[in-house]
Amino acid sequence: MFHINNKPIIDKCIVSFSHNRYESRSQADKFALEKARREIAQKKKGVSHLILRADGDDIDRLKFLFLVQGIPIMCYALGNLLLSSLKEIVVVGSSEVNTILEHFLSVVDTHGKKVTFVHEDPDNLLLINTMILGRNELSLAANELVLFQPGDLPFMYDLEGVLQDKDLKSHNLILWLNSRQAMFPQFKENPASEFVVRNYHYRVIAEKAKQLHDVKEPNVYPINLSAIEDDIIELLHQTRKDGKILNAGLSKALRSPTRMLRLLPVLAKHFRHFDSDLKQFRLNDRFKFGAHLKNFNQGASILLDTPFIAKFNDDPAFVADVDALEDWEDFESLTHLADERHSGDGLAAIHPFGKELLQFREKAMPRLRKVIPMYADFKSYLNDLYRSLEMKYVPFNDNGIYDTPNLHTPQIETAYRWYADKTRKFVKRIA
Question: Which of 264, 359, 379, 412 is most buried, with most CB under 10 Å away?
Fold first, then answer.
């Protein structure tokens, strides 16, 4: 039994604008194309042409730098953090990230927060090293959790439920799983209500509520970095998308006989009951990993040797990251539709930091277009990228006007209404 008493809130954050690189552009494109072709052949809903970095590129294809409505994605993520109750923010990224950060803060200010930049280590871009670089800039107590998150979540501005979660006091790691059923409860009856399309590879049975959840890995990690072993963080991160999380856990447990002994009853229950219990909800299902929520929490706590809990997130903004060209389109289309509805000033209607973001675009982007290579002709850069990844169209026509099939879907209309409503409520709450 664990007995801990952590601080009840999180007021420090590490945000990563860093990402791993492939050894060559041909290797990166091969991986991206094979994944997309496979998803197309399998008729998956969530086809992804991934945005991947590679060594030797003249322009660093760093997804956080991509422009949405002429504004870097990283600036949306920074605005989200400035809106929150956080007190300290550590930014990890490249030299270009630092340049944009300096321009951003010179326009919008820090909102009373301490913001520190740390340069990524190009020779070690592993997640755990990024965490360590950020951790080294913070004074963290032994009983204090920090928020770790990637910087590709442009509309994830409502963070207080994570920063002030009641479970912070009694757990050293919280996984906010992205649940399809929690985020889009009407997706079966009304497919257009699911305005963020993803492939959900995991299954979790919540026994108490008698519910089956299709879930994706989390994008935010409240974590006590003094209580979680470095190797398990990297191990779990590397296996988070391919369904080998159980194998990763077992390999770790086998190196610790006492943990393995404690884990055996949990594993026995899993193998004895999960498949049969799943059939009570769904007779035929294809997935990469599944578990009962209570059993998963218990097993992970044993494996980590520290209190752990997984929870279901119900905010679509938490799953709406920008990993692929299709994801970029979702946000570009959303902001274009908002502009149409609000005569060119739509961003403030769907994002509570919208006015500041537009101010940054007006004051800083002319200078950044001269110093950040990607921005010199971003529209042509995107069109060339679409062609190289075998997309069936390009996003900008000969006159530089954005127009894609995505822009005219019911999901974009749903997304616009959802974010406009959420923004109104959020602004009223913080006023």
Answer: 412
